[in-house]
């Protein structure tokens, strides 16, 4: 509670209240002054409540404050039964009621100002239903609601603009800077025009530059049109591919399906769609409408704080708990356990839930299938762009597999044929080896016969001559064909060169002229560039000098502004002190004792008297304590000695009991030995 009062006093001493309270003076305020202070705080939040409570009845004051606190969503501490006590305390100006209200208001003044401002336009007037039967009243009520919605939209736009950070000062600054740049550019254009007028053929050069700029803009527009047409062509190709895929699927469905299966599919789709239209979608629409209604209702109300939200959540939890208890009581009272209808109801609810779940699963599966189809189309288009061939469908893939199977059988047949040919090749190779051996034997016999006859090497020489002649004839044929080909190629190249020369002759003439023009324009461009650089350097030096001057002036202006604000603050402080001195003098010399009590001197005098009385009481108490200190210490010593004496007696008693127990045990042991 002390921290709460400290916070209230600090806030009231600041702007815009400036009450100059301390803890003692605030705590000594009377009920009427507390009510006036609460009215002043409410008047700061809503200017309509800045009134003097002495000019109105207490009931009117309490009603006015309660209405505004209700609009500001103030929740009194305690339960609902304490509301009457809260109203009574507000009427009488009770401190336990006024202090929490002041603390709550001063904690969130800016937020409550905004809420009070919005409440003037958003608190809806409740018109009775019998009055709304009149067309004029109904039209006015409709216009009133439309204006309220328009105000909501405008307020949202206003808040967004405030958050965006744009201000009129910045916009004006930007406009002035743009106007200065515009003036500078206009002056620069005028200077350049004057310089260009002295150059020969400047009109022709300007016309050429303008045409060049137009051609560049036209080139950019054509490039943009080309890009757009490419994108349109790509989208058209994708649409065509999707249409072809759909056509193939439809053809496949029509080819492979029967009327009975088609009718069955159509019946299933009709049943599913009718369930969606008659049961699922209306229920969802009703739930959405209710949620939208509640959201609109929430939006129409003023903004809520976190404390309001927590309070609402606690209320919702309490209401839910009460509802559950009532439902359990109703079930225990009206539904007996042996009723057969409960079982059927449970089964029906389970089936309906399963039906809804399956419908949602089917809807999700359809959406997933459509997304997968879109992905397949995208992947097929990407594959078509990369490889140039379409992705196979299911039927085409089956045909491809059948072709592979037939090729596999054909491959196996050919493999068997190759195996047979390989076996035959082995036989032939063996036959060739045998024949070569026989040929070598015959050659040896032939050489032996030639040696006998004296003509050795005759057969070998003849074979070599025949082989060389055959090779020579082949080379002659190849040379003749090569020469013919080369002659034809030379003729074709000469014809192509002649054609290219004839086609490039006018282009070369134009190129020479363009090169000459380019050299002239390049020379002119270099001259203009030199002039531009010199002009830019002069302007840059002027700009830097102006920037330095502006910087100095801005610093001087900032210094003068700070001096002005300092002097203004000092003046305001002195005025406040002077006002306080006048009020103190007025209260001190006033004949009214009530006003004189408000003076600071009187307050401090009263505080000094209270502190002196308190000191006198404390000194008397100290004297009594000093007088009774000796006897009290003596009595405490006697009690400590008595405690030690009693402790010693307890120990002696315990020792005596232990010795008696030991003697008894020894006697019992002796008796046992005698018996044995």
From TrEMBL:
<feature type="domain" description="IFT81 calponin homology">
    <location>
        <begin position="3"/>
        <end position="126"/>
    </location>
</feature>
<dbReference type="GO" id="GO:0007283">
    <property type="term" value="P:spermatogenesis"/>
</dbReference>
<keyword id="KW-0221">Differentiation</keyword>
<keyword id="KW-0970">Cilium biogenesis/degradation</keyword>
<dbReference type="GO" id="GO:0030154">
    <property type="term" value="P:cell differentiation"/>
</dbReference>
<feature type="coiled-coil region">
    <location>
        <begin position="137"/>
        <end position="253"/>
    </location>
</feature>
<keyword id="KW-0966">Cell projection</keyword>
<keyword id="KW-0963">Cytoplasm</keyword>
<dbReference type="GO" id="GO:0060271">
    <property type="term" value="P:cilium assembly"/>
</dbReference>
<keyword id="KW-0206">Cytoskeleton</keyword>
<keyword id="KW-0175">Coiled coil</keyword>
<dbReference type="InterPro" id="IPR043016">
    <property type="entry name" value="IFT81_N_sf"/>
</dbReference>
<dbReference type="GO" id="GO:0042073">
    <property type="term" value="P:intraciliary transport"/>
</dbReference>
<dbReference type="Pfam" id="PF18383">
    <property type="entry name" value="IFT81_CH"/>
</dbReference>
<protein>
    <recommendedName>
        <fullName>Intraflagellar transport protein 81 homolog</fullName>
    </recommendedName>
</protein>
<dbReference type="GO" id="GO:0030992">
    <property type="term" value="C:intraciliary transport particle B"/>
</dbReference>
<dbReference type="InterPro" id="IPR029600">
    <property type="entry name" value="IFT81"/>
</dbReference>
<dbReference type="GO" id="GO:0036064">
    <property type="term" value="C:ciliary basal body"/>
</dbReference>
<keyword id="KW-0007">Acetylation</keyword>
<feature type="coiled-coil region">
    <location>
        <begin position="309"/>
        <end position="389"/>
    </location>
</feature>
<comment type="similarity">
    <text>Belongs to the IFT81 family.</text>
</comment>
<feature type="coiled-coil region">
    <location>
        <begin position="483"/>
        <end position="563"/>
    </location>
</feature>
<dbReference type="GO" id="GO:0015631">
    <property type="term" value="F:tubulin binding"/>
</dbReference>
<keyword id="KW-0744">Spermatogenesis</keyword>
<dbReference type="InterPro" id="IPR041146">
    <property type="entry name" value="IFT81_CH"/>
</dbReference>
<keyword id="KW-0597">Phosphoprotein</keyword>
<keyword id="KW-0969">Cilium</keyword>
<comment type="function">
    <text>Component of the intraflagellar transport (IFT) complex B: together with IFT74, forms a tubulin-binding module that specifically mediates transport of tubulin within the cilium. Binds tubulin via its CH (calponin-homology)-like region. Required for ciliogenesis. Required for proper regulation of SHH signaling. Plays an important role during spermatogenesis by modulating the assembly and elongation of the sperm flagella.</text>
</comment>
